[in-house]
């Protein structure tokens, strides 16, 4: 009888020991995985001691998880209060230009742990109906963030809409404004390509680019065509300069953002007074897609939507030459105003 009790006792001790060892191994593995999933930027000491104004590194972990749940409406008011989250008006806006790379720029800036992006275009300042709803309506369209993070939204229609500069000025006269541009003729063709694809999806026919870009009566560039007008960057910028000094604008090279994004992003970090956090590790070239994709951490990567990087239709070379000649004087003036020169033909 005594022998049986000893055997049972040894079996119980063996089971308890196995459970204890298993639990210990799980905790070790768990701690290791949590350490690997720390945000990329956030290693204390890598960039020197953290200032009082910087966000605690642990708090930044909520950026990819908790904040996402809050954006989906899955959080209570008490959870929001406990985590000290707010919906802030943007401190910077990507105002344009259409087909210049606004979505790519926004998504790439979102790699920075101090940046929180509005996932949808709000169209507050360029839409009279939305604007009439008031600034509080606009603020509630913003994502939840920590007080020290910067909220950024993008609506490329802002750049070309006449009422927008004054409306944004009334909200915040010191706001930082980002404009991303591409070579004007390429941008116009890209604009046309997007519209063409939309027409084809609806089984509708559409004019060739040449017929829209060139006035058939004068054989000159058709300045009434919206894709052409949008590419006259200096005309739109001059309207903005009536309200904001040039120092509040930063011009991003959309063509370079495609081929060599990191230097462009580093310049934006500096313009926004953000500590340098985006590195080459965060950007990797996807040969299948033909452009750079984003790496947030060891488990989370992201590429832009398949609609990005559309193949442009063939355009008559004489039309391209005519457009480039037309845009040339406007480009020169744009270089002078912004202090940035591009290698546009």
TrEMBL record:
Alphabetical GO CC annotations of the entry are:
Golgi membrane
Enzyme class, one word? transferase
**Which positions, given as ranges, span the membrane?**
12-29
Catalytic site positions: 99
Q: Please state every residue range assigned to the domain named Sulfotransferase.
A: 90-334
Lineage: superkingdom: Eukaryota
Q: Which residues bind 3'-phosphoadenylyl sulfate?
A: 99-103, 182, 190, 292, 308-312
Biological process according to GO: heparan sulfate proteoglycan biosynthetic process; negative regulation of coagulation; regulation of viral entry into host cell
Q: Name one Pfam family in it.
A: Sulfotransfer_1
Disulfide bond found in the keyword field: yes
Keywords recorded for this protein, A-Z:
Disulfide bond, Glycoprotein, Golgi apparatus, Membrane, Signal-anchor, Transferase, Transmembrane, Transmembrane helix
* EC number(s) given by UniProt: 2.8.2.-
Q: How does it sit in the membrane?
A: Single-pass type II membrane protein
Q: Which GO MF term does the entry hold, naming one?
A: [heparan sulfate]-glucosamine 3-sulfotransferase activity
- Which cysteine pairs are joined by S-S bonds? 293-303
Cell location = Golgi apparatus membrane
Does the entry feature the keyword Transmembrane, yes or no?
Answer: yes
Write out the catalysed reaction.
alpha-D-glucosaminyl-[heparan sulfate](n) + 3'-phosphoadenylyl sulfate = 3-sulfo-alpha-D-glucosaminyl-[heparan sulfate](n) + adenosine 3',5'-bisphosphate + H(+)
Q: Which PANTHER family match?
A: HEPARAN SULFATE GLUCOSAMINE 3-O-SULFOTRANSFERASE 5 (PTHR10605:SF46), HEPARAN SULFATE SULFOTRANSFERASE (PTHR10605)
Q: Which family does it belong to?
A: Belongs to the sulfotransferase 1 family.
What is the protein name stated in its UniProt record? Sulfotransferase
Origin species? Coturnix japonica (Japanese quail)
């Amino acid at each position: 009888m005594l022998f049986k009790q000893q055997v049972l006792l040894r079996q119980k001790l063996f089971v308890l020991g196995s459970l204890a060892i298993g639990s210990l191994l799980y905790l070790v593995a768990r701690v290791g995985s949590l350490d690997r999933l720390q945000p990329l930027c956030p290693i204390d000491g890598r960039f020197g001691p953290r200032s009082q104004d910087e966000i605690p590194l642990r708090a930044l972990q909520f950026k990819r998880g908790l904040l996402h749940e809050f954006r989906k409406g899955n959080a209570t008011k008490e959870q929001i209060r406990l985590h000290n989250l707010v919906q802030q008006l943007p401190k910077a806006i990507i105002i344009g230009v259409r087909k210049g790379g606004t979505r790519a720029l926004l998504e790439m800036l979102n790699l920075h742990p101090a940046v929180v992006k509005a996932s949808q275009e709000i169209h507050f300042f360029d839409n009279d109906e939305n604007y009439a709803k008031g600034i509080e309506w606009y603020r509630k369209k913003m994502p939840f963030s920590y007080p020290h993070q910067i909220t950024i939204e993008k609506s490329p229609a802002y750049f070309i809409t006449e009422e927008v500069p004054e409306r944004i000025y009334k909200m915040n006269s010191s706001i930082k404004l980002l404009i991303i541009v591409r070579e004007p003729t390429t941008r116009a063709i890209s604009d046309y390509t997007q519209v063409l694809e939309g027409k084809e999806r609806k089984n509708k026919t559409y004019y060739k680019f040449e017929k829209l870009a060139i006035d058939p009566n004068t054989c000159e560039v058709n300045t009434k065509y919206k894709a052409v007008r949008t590419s006259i960057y200096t005309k739109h910028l001059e309207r903005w300069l009536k309200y904001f000094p040039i120092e509040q604008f930063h011009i991003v090279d959309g063509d370079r953002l495609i081929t060599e994004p990191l230097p462009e992003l580093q310049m934006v970090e500096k313009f926004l007074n953000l500590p340098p956090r985006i590195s080459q590790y965060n950007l990797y070239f996807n040969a299948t897609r033909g452009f750079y994709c984003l790496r947030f951490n060891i488990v989370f990567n992201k590429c832009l939507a398949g609609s990005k990087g559309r193949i442009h239709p063939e355009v008559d070379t004489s039309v391209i030459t005519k457009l480039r000649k037309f845009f040339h004087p406007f480009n020169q003036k744009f270089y002078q105003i912004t202090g940035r020169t591009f290698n546009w033909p």
